[in-house]
Amino acid sequence: MKETVGFIGLGGMGSAMTANLLKAGFGLRVYNRTAEKARPLVEQGAVLVRSPAEAAEPGGIVVTMVSDDAALEAVTIGTDGFLSRLKDGVHLAMSTIAPRTARHLAELHKKGGAHYVASPVFGKPEVAVAAKLWIATAGDAAARKRVRPLQEAMGQRVFEFGDDPGAANAIKLAGNFMLGAAIEAMAEAFTLAQKHGVPRHDTYEFFTQTLFDCFVYRGYGQLVASENYQPVGARPSLIRKDYGLVVDAAAEKLVPMPLAALIHERLTARVAKGHDDQDWASFAREVSESAGL
Question: pLDDT tens across 46-94, in order?
Fold first, then answer.
């Protein structure tokens, strides 16, 4: 048995990631607001704890995979937060949050003698199940080395971005923006061709076999072409949160990003219309509807 670590956040991603840590031989103390989600992990040997603080051991490692900045701050420094108990241990933070939040939490960890490693991931839940996530990471070099075995148990490759934790989260936001930009481009292109009599799927087949023969265009392009946005990889409300972070991060550093603002508005429309039961790529429907389709 490898060392026992704490893991907080057992949603679709967190549950898959923890299962892979168990398979790799790590012991786990797990916490989730809805304790019932921990049942399959407990049956595999994880220990369910009653608070975020109980997930930590002095000098140990705690991994977090929660929904947003507020949730991360709550489990870290809120009532029953684990930071005061972590001492000189390492917090491996894998959520999508603002670079500003990562830097703030890193300073709080440093003051308490602990280490903060930012480690957001790219990949849908099925990718997490297969332990094929791409992981961006940044933070103290020694702390990064310590958590590397955990990252390798959850992902197919780890990319290092230096000592500033905010850098890894900036990469995550940049990546999510690029995914949305690709979806917006396909939505507009497929709709243009459709209005001129070319079936959406024919457009998809041509471009994914020629100019845009790549993972993102093939995967998300199939959704945009078919306009069937199931199964749900991530809901519009979740990625709308991410795009809010993109827009805020851009404003903070005076980076004009009009396309990010447009996509944020499209995601807002999907949520407002009650379509949060579809994959986030369904914001492409806003383009079709604007064209009268």
Answer: 999 999 999 999 999 999 999 999 999 999 999 999 999 999 999 999 9
Handedness of CA 66, 70, 76, 80 (dihedral sign): negative
pLDDT in tens, 178-228: 999 999 999 999 999 999 999 999 999 999 999 999 999 999 999 999 999
CA distance 252 to 104: 15
User: Which residues lie closer than 8 Å to 179 by C-beta, 6 or more apart?
Assistant: 216, 220
Distance between CA atoms of residues 50 and 217, nearest Å: 43
- Whole-number Å distance between alpha carbons of 243 and 176: 8
Residue 195 has a CB neighbour count (10 Å cut-off) of 12
DSSP 167-201: HHHHHHHHHHHHHHHHHHHHHHHHHHHHHTT--HH
Contact at 8 Å (CB) between 33 and 146?
no
DSSP H helices, 119-164, are 125-129, 141-154
pTM score, whole prediction? 0.95
Please give, one letter per residue, the 3-state secondary structure of 227-287.
CCCCCCCCCHHHHHHHHHHHHHHHHHCCCCCHHHHHHHHHHHHHHHCCCCCCCHHHHHHHH
CB-based contacts of 272: which residues, under 8 Å, 6+ apart?
Answer: none
pLDDT at position 2 is 86
Residues 6+ apart with CB under 8 A from 198: none
Tell whether the model's pLDDT for residue 1 goes beyond 80: no
Residue given tokens 């709308």 in the structure block: 240
**Which residues, in sequence order, are bridge partners of residue 4?**
27
Contact 134, 86 (CB under 8 A): no
Question: Which sequence positions are flagged as catalytic?
Answer: 172
